[in-house]
């Protein structure tokens, strides 16, 4: 059995901030990001539902100025941290694709499946 893919420790992400992760390269490149709110973590595919661009222009800059929402830097869409639901912008009403995470007792954060493509939460 292949163990789930390790991403980082919970405390490698500042409270209220996010961190991006890239897998593979070329056509098989696959990006996700993880947002931390207190001790809670939320993972999403780094692809805006508007036109599919990554949300961060500057690496790991995924949050709105006040830190309350996930922000797409391309056209300013805002997404709820807990749900990935878009509440403002050109893709309002749509959702980021969630990625299932697993956090162990020591705070190590893993994808819940070894292959990122298998880890999308449903
Ligand atoms: S690409 Fe994200 S709002 Fe347009």
TrEMBL record:
Record GO terms (molecular function): 2 iron, 2 sulfur cluster binding; metal ion binding
Domain of life of the source: Bacteria
Cited SUPFAM superfamilies: ISP domain (SSF50022)
Pfam families, sorted: Rieske
Keyword Cytoplasm on entry: no
Keyword annotations from UniProtKB, A to Z: 2Fe-2S, Iron, Iron-sulfur, Metal-binding
InterPro entries: Rieske_2Fe-2S, Rieske_2Fe-2S_sf
Residues covered by the Rieske domain: 5-110
Entry-linked PANTHER family: PTHR40261, RIESKE DOMAIN-CONTAINING PROTEIN
Protein name, as recorded: Nitrite reductase/ring-hydroxylating ferredoxin subunit
Classification lineage: Bacteria, Pseudomonadati, Pseudomonadota, Alphaproteobacteria, Rhodospirillales
């Amino acid at each position: 059995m292949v163990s789930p893919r390790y991403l980082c420790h919970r405390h490698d992400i500042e409270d209220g901030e996010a961190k991006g992760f890239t897998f593979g390269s070329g056509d098989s490149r696959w990006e996700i990001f993880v947002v931390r709110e207190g001790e809670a973590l939320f993972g999403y595919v780094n692809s805006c539902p508007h036109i599919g661009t990554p949300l961060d222009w500057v690496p790991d800059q995924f949050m709105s100025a006040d830190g309350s929402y996930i922000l797409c830097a391309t056209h300013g869409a805002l997404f709820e941290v807990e749900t990935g639901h878009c509440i403002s912008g050109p893709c309002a009403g749509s959702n980021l694709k969630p990625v299932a995470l697993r956090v162990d007792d020591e705070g190590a954060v893993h994808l819940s499946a070894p292959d990122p493509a298998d880890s999308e939460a449903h």
